[in-house]
Amino acid sequence: MGLFRKKKKQELFDYDGKPLKVGDKVMSLRYELGKCTIVEGEHGVEYESVETGRRVRYEWMIDAHTENQKVRKLEE
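The structure assignment produced for this chain is given below.
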Protein backbone atom coordinates (compact mmCIF):
# COMPACT_ATOMS: atom_id res chain seq x y z
CA MET A 1 0.00 0.00 0.00
CA GLY A 2 2.96 2.32 0.39
CA LEU A 3 2.43 3.28 4.01
CA PHE A 4 5.78 1.91 5.12
CA ARG A 5 8.04 2.86 2.22
CA LYS A 6 11.67 3.31 3.08
CA LYS A 7 12.86 6.87 2.84
CA LYS A 8 15.07 7.29 -0.21
CA LYS A 9 18.63 8.22 0.73
CA GLN A 10 19.43 11.85 -0.11
CA GLU A 11 21.79 12.17 -3.08
CA LEU A 12 23.99 15.24 -2.92
CA PHE A 13 25.88 16.91 -5.76
CA ASP A 14 28.30 19.81 -5.63
CA TYR A 15 27.78 23.03 -7.56
CA ASP A 16 29.39 21.47 -10.64
CA GLY A 17 27.31 18.26 -10.46
CA LYS A 18 29.94 15.98 -8.88
CA PRO A 19 28.47 13.44 -6.40
CA LEU A 20 29.15 14.03 -2.70
CA LYS A 21 29.28 11.63 0.26
CA VAL A 22 30.06 11.73 3.97
CA GLY A 23 33.80 12.20 4.48
CA ASP A 24 34.38 14.30 1.35
CA LYS A 25 36.27 17.59 1.63
CA VAL A 26 34.59 20.60 0.03
CA MET A 27 34.98 24.37 -0.26
CA SER A 28 31.86 26.17 0.90
CA LEU A 29 30.45 28.92 -1.30
CA ARG A 30 28.18 30.23 1.50
CA TYR A 31 28.28 31.24 5.17
CA GLU A 32 32.06 31.88 5.11
CA LEU A 33 32.75 28.30 6.21
CA GLY A 34 35.83 27.84 4.02
CA LYS A 35 37.12 24.29 3.72
CA CYS A 36 34.65 21.75 5.17
CA THR A 37 34.21 18.05 5.76
CA ILE A 38 30.85 16.41 5.10
CA VAL A 39 29.70 14.67 8.29
CA GLU A 40 26.67 12.77 9.57
CA GLY A 41 25.25 15.04 12.25
CA GLU A 42 22.34 15.42 14.61
CA HIS A 43 20.16 16.77 11.80
CA GLY A 44 21.40 14.46 9.01
CA VAL A 45 24.15 15.45 6.58
CA GLU A 46 26.06 18.55 7.65
CA TYR A 47 29.10 20.55 6.55
CA GLU A 48 31.68 21.08 9.29
CA SER A 49 34.16 23.92 8.85
CA VAL A 50 37.77 22.80 9.26
CA GLU A 51 38.80 26.26 10.56
CA THR A 52 35.97 27.01 13.03
CA GLY A 53 34.13 23.73 13.66
CA ARG A 54 30.82 25.43 12.78
CA ARG A 55 28.25 23.08 11.23
CA VAL A 56 25.61 23.88 8.62
CA ARG A 57 22.88 21.47 7.47
CA TYR A 58 22.84 20.45 3.81
CA GLU A 59 19.35 21.93 3.37
CA TRP A 60 20.76 25.42 3.91
CA MET A 61 23.29 24.90 1.13
CA ILE A 62 20.85 24.06 -1.68
CA ASP A 63 21.13 26.26 -4.77
CA ALA A 64 17.59 27.23 -5.77
CA HIS A 65 18.38 27.21 -9.50
CA THR A 66 20.20 23.86 -9.84
CA GLU A 67 19.13 22.13 -6.59
CA ASN A 68 22.79 21.16 -6.15
CA GLN A 69 24.81 22.10 -3.07
CA LYS A 70 26.63 25.43 -2.90
CA VAL A 71 29.99 23.75 -2.36
CA ARG A 72 32.80 22.62 -4.62
CA LYS A 73 34.32 19.18 -4.06
CA LEU A 74 38.06 19.27 -3.32
CA GLU A 75 40.23 16.66 -4.98
CA GLU A 76 43.04 15.77 -2.59
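Interim note for the steering committee: Strands lie at 12-13, 19-20, 25-28, 35-41, 44-49, 55-57, 71-73. Residues 12-73 form one domain.
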